[in-house]
Specification:
The complex is a heterodimer.
Chain A lengths: L12 E10 L2 E11 L4 E5 L6 H9 L6 E6 L2 E2 L9 E4 L11 H12 L7 H7 L15 H14 L4 E4 L8 H16 L3 E6 L11 E6 L11 E5 L2
Parallel strand pairs in A: 3-8, 3-9, 6-7, 7-8
Antiparallel strand pairs in A: 1-2, 1-4, 4-5, 9-10
Chain B lengths: L5 H18 L1 H4 L1 H17 L3 H24 L1 H8 L2 H7 L4 H30 L9 H24 L6 H27 L5 H29 L2
The chains are: A alpha/beta, B mainly alpha.
Chain lengths: 230, 227
């Protein structure tokens, strides 16, 4: 639960002067923002604005060109990845030949489980209790997304990095994501989610980080970022 | 919130990879069939003179095994790379090199071990010297894990590229040559009645070295490949 002295403690995630370039072509940045416990921050940007790249940098999969990422006050490097992050990227990370439950059991073995949850109950939490024994190959894109969300939910971590969590989901699925994010924030977790704007984050008023180099003005080589309380 | 133990993570990964191989057991048999076909074609192509075949038997079995392993090598990390599982492995709190060692172990168990199991049959197809019946599987037992480990490092380097098959072969073949020379050399020496222990010990030493270093190199290479 958010408390007044929350911001005195080191932020769960902090970006300082963070920028990333691929082959000397700037993708985003410099960005400065912090994510505290109990917060949900929405990263907004057009297609190609670098949202997914930002999430991969924050997860530690990509090294930033400039600036640094701090998790719980400690600098994140490729050699010092934090076990505190659950990443949902546009690859769901699911094995199509395994059933949904088998996929989650593997994730549980790899990462551990959140207290009070099991692969079965996590699957029920995303509304797929009837599909546990169906090979993931036979699930629809939205159902696969839900299984991937169940994996994020199951992992015993405080920080969620969700890349387009609303993509492929129906109305019920969008509400589900909002509900999961709200519960996660209430138990002291934090989440950074990306959206290109077509899907609305409906619950409450999350903070936003806007990414705007966009494809159009990327040639100018300058990425601007703005952080504001929405 | 409690992260799982590293042993549990390795067990989960071993189990998952074995189940995946079992679900696609048809695909898993490809290297075995490939080696069998190559070896079976030799007597047809060079005639059934027993002396000629016996002379080349060791070399043919080794080359067939090596090429069959190369055929299966690309699948080692490819699937995990494409569906994003590799990212999840990298982001797990456990040592990546240990997790990759588990993957390589499953790969060796499912592609190389069946080949070693049928190597006496492959030998018979080529009238292998009866004195080598025990030595050939033993030499393969030392050679194939070394090939898998060396190959895994090269696959880790190339997995981020599209159509990396040719590059992989170019990278891996020069590294395979010494292993081939020592493995086949031991058998050839035995066939001529010469001492054959030294090359086997070299292979064993190389294997110990690779067991320690290759997973570490693999982990470093994969981190570069997925970025």
């Amino acid at each position: 639960m958010p408390t007044p002295d929350l911001h005195d403690r080191p932020a769960l995630l902090e970006a300082r002067g963070l920028s990333f370039s691929r082959n000397d072509e700037p993708i985003f940045g410099p960005l400065d923002f912090a994510l505290h416990e109990g917060e949900t921050v929405l990263v907004e940007g057009d297609n190609g604005a670098g949202k997914s790249t930002l999430l991969r940098v924050l997860a530690g999969l990509l090294a930033p060109t400039d600036g640094e990422v701090r998790l719980h006050g400690e600098v994140l490097t490729l050699a010092n990845l934090s076990p505190q992050v659950a990443l949902l990227s546009h690859h769901n990370g699911l094995k199509l030949d395994l059933t949904a439950v088998e996929n989650l059991r593997f994730a549980a073995g790899l990462l551990g489980v959140r207290q009070g949850l099991s692969p079965i109950s996590a699957l029920a939490a995303v509304g797929l209790d009837a599909f546990g024994d169906v090979p993931t190959r036979q699930l629809s894109a939205g159902q696969k997304k839900r299984v991937a969300l169940a994996r994020v939910l199951l992992a015993p971590v405080g920080l969620w990095l969700l890349d387009e969590p609303y993509a492929n989901l129906d109305r019920g699925g969008i509400e589900l994501v909002n509900r999961l994010l709200e519960t996660h924030a209430h138990r002291g977790g934090a989440a950074l989610i990306t959206s290109h704007g077509a899907y609305a984050y409906t619950s409450g008023a999350p903070r936003k980080v806007a990414l705007r180099p966009g494809i159009g003005n990327r040639e100018s080589g300058i990425g601007t970022a703005a952080e504001d309380r929405a | 919130m409690k992260p799982g133990s590293t042993a549990a993570a390795c067990a989960a990964l071993l189990r998952r990879d074995l189940v995946l191989v079992w679900r696609r057991r048809g695909d898993a048999l490809t290297p075995l069939l490939f080696a069998l076909i190559v070896v079976a074609l030799f007597p047809l192509a060079i005639g059934a003179q027993q002396d000629t075949l016996r002379h080349v038997a060791v070399g043919v079995v080794f080359v067939a095994t090596l090429l069959a392993g190369l055929l299966a090598l690309d699948t080692l990390f490819r699937g995990d790379y494409e569906d994003g599982s590799l990212e999840q492995l990298v982001l797990s709190p456990h040592p990546l090199s240990l997790l990759l060692a588990c993957k390589i172990a499953v790969h060796w168990l499912t592609t190389a071990l069946p080949l070693i199991a049928i190597s006496p049959l492959l030998g018979e197809l080529l009238f292998l010297d009866p004195a080598l019946r025990a030595l050939l599987p033993l030499a393969l037992l030392l050679t194939t894990p070394l090939l898998s480990l060396i190959g895994a490092v090269c696959v880790a380097l190339t997995v981020g590229m599209q159509r990396s098959g040719m590059l992989l072969a170019l990278l891996v073949l020069p590294l395979y040559v010494p292993v081939l020379i020592f493995g086949a050399g031991a058998c050839n020496a035995a066939q001529m009645g010469l001492p054959f222990l030294a090359p086997l010990l070299w292979l064993a030493a190389g294997l110990v070295l690779a067991l320690v270093l290759a997973p570490l190199a693999c982990a470093a290479a994969l981190r570069i490949s997925i970025s």
